[in-house]
Write a structure and sequence with these properties.
Length: 370
């Protein structure tokens, strides 16, 4: 079978939509109040060196994905054990994304509909697109990104008359401690979650393309999240934003242009569906590739349906209610996700540099003897 290759533009689109994901609608940690935008900028800055580390794996092991690298560096047994952890992380993240959408549907959009119904619909769409292949996910992502950026830009322009800039004062009124706490929260959710994109490194076009793709995706998604966060903050106020489950939906619902352009929150909800669809699809794809690598299957497609249905079923009982979901996202998740995003990749990178250097020395030694 011909190897699938994702063009650079499609890869950047996947990264942008994956990072934006549910954070576009759920908002970011808001302990820092009107200084949350500072925490966001710090989180983006912290993510840059992390992405350089991820991109380095693509240079050291061209044509290999996350699970290949784990087995090469850590060995067949321990590498597969760590691969199981990342399969779990991908499935868990996909379930979290679906549950975010389910809670939104139950709370705002489809209050009389059982929560499993919208989650199952999105889950089946994810199964279909993942079975179609990573190239199809890339093409969908590029189209959806253009629609999403146009929609966000349109709403940002319409929101200008509603912005109240005095909500940004007083500057740093809550001090630096809440800002640092929000920085870690925003770093782990959503920016560092892009560690799962290493699962598709084997489909990138060129040896050094990962750096360009990851950094471009971070820049675009960071600007989008910053603009949306500032819009929510300036339309509502820091206290209201912090108390809401879906601040973007409420902020956009306040836009009313001459009693003609109203109910703009529907278009905002469409953007939410687009981002969670791409994010859940990538999670399912990475989990399927990991399982195929773990059990040495011929194709990941043979397990997509099973894993997709497990992901949907898991999302149904993962939380008791929306309050528990938000508590996990902003309090427990930063601690839970840090090993997957930083600690294990850092250890893997150090070991990978040693392994590659040792292999080069072995190749040079026989040549020097000749």
């Amino acid at each position: 079978m011909k190897k699938e290759i994702i063009p650079t533009g499609h890869s950047i689109s996947i990264v942008v939509l994956f990072i934006i994901g549910t954070s576009l609608f759920m908002g970011l940690p808001g302990k820092s109040g009107n200084s949350s935008w500072i925490a966001l900028l710090l989180a983006i800055s912290l993510t840059v060196p992390l992405l350089f580390m991820y991109a380095r794996f693509h240079v050291l092991f061209p044509g290999k994905n996350l699970f290949d690298i784990l087995i090469i560096v850590f060995g067949s047994i321990f590498g597969r054990v760590v691969s199981c952890l990342y399969i779990w992380y991908a499935l868990h993240m996909g379930a979290l994304v679906l549950r975010n959408f389910g809670e939104f549907s139950k709370t705002v959009a489809l209050t009389e509909t059982p929560m499993i119904a919208p989650m199952l619909c999105v889950g089946l769409l994810c199964i279909w697109v993942v079975k179609a292949g990573i190239e199809v996910i890339g093409r969908c992502a590029k189209l959806f990104l253009l629609l999403l950026l146009a929609e966000i830009l349109f709403i940002e322009i319409l929101a200008i008359p509603k912005l109240k800039y005095h909500y940004l004062k007083p500057f740093l009124d809550s001090g630096w401690s809440p800002i640092f706490a929000d920085t870690i929260g925003s770093f782990t959710f959503p920016f560092a979650e892009i560690v799962l994109f290493m699962g598709v490194f084997s489909h990138l076009p060129a040896k050094d393309s990962a750096k360009k793709i990851l950094l471009s995706g971070l820049l675009i998604s960071g600007v989008v999240i910053l603009l949306v966060s500032l819009r929510n903050l300036l339309i509502l106020n820091p206290d209201i934003v912090q108390s809401l489950y879906f601040p973007s939906y409420v902020a956009v619902s306040r836009i009313n242009i001459g009693d003609f352009l109203t109910r703009m929150e529907a278009s905002s909800a469409l953007g939410f569906v687009i981002t969670i669809f791409i994010k859940a699809s990538l999670c399912l794809y990475v989990a399927s590739v990991g399982v195929a690598k773990l059990f040495k299957l011929k194709s990941y497609r043979s397990v997509v349906l099973q894993l997709g249905l497990i992901m949907v079923y898991f999302s149904q009982f993962i939380f008791k209610d929306i309050m528990e979901m938000q508590h996990f996202a902003y309090t427990i998740y930063p601690i839970y996700a840090l090993p997957f995003q930083v600690i294990i990749p850092l250890i893997l990178w150090i070991c990978a540099e040693i392994v590659v250097s040792r292999d080069k020395n072995k190749q040079i030694a026989p040549q020097s003897q000749q």
